[in-house]
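Render this sequence as a predicted structure.
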Amino acid sequence: MNILNLESESLRYRKFNVSDYLDLYEILSNPNVCKYLPGETYDERKIKLWLNKFALDFDETKPNLVYAVTTKTNDKVIGYVGIAYVKEYDKPEILYGFNEDYWHKGYASEGSTRMKDLAIKLKYDSLVAFAAIDNLYSNKVLVKTGYDYIETIDLWGLRLKYYKMNLGGN
């Protein structure tokens, strides 16, 4: 299965590369985007580390499959979506984040659903997810994707809703 380049109805997903830095900087340096992420707004150094981690460590076995997201009509990176390993739960999670200019267009739901389909194809048995309790939109996206709310937790310095989704894999 080719997992390097994927598509959904209106989006394309590809591996990050170093030339995506400026688009990623536009996303991760925005305080409105980072409001619900661990830590503060990302600075240049943190964004370069983030980009290198996801570009160089792209691997389905860890899993570490974080994709650069573009629309089918433009090559500008408008966000990221993927499946990444959460050591605290020893499970993969679906994660996503988008440039604020592309919020409320259904892209988070579309990307999250595409990652769920990929996780099923890769035969993962379950996925976890986390959303800040006051991030109403992300909480709706996770439920729409098929996650079940488990409990509210404190993790990574944030108060989060913890979700789990059984996929019936291995």
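Summary. Residues 107-121 form the longest helix (15 residues). The chain has one domain: 5-124.
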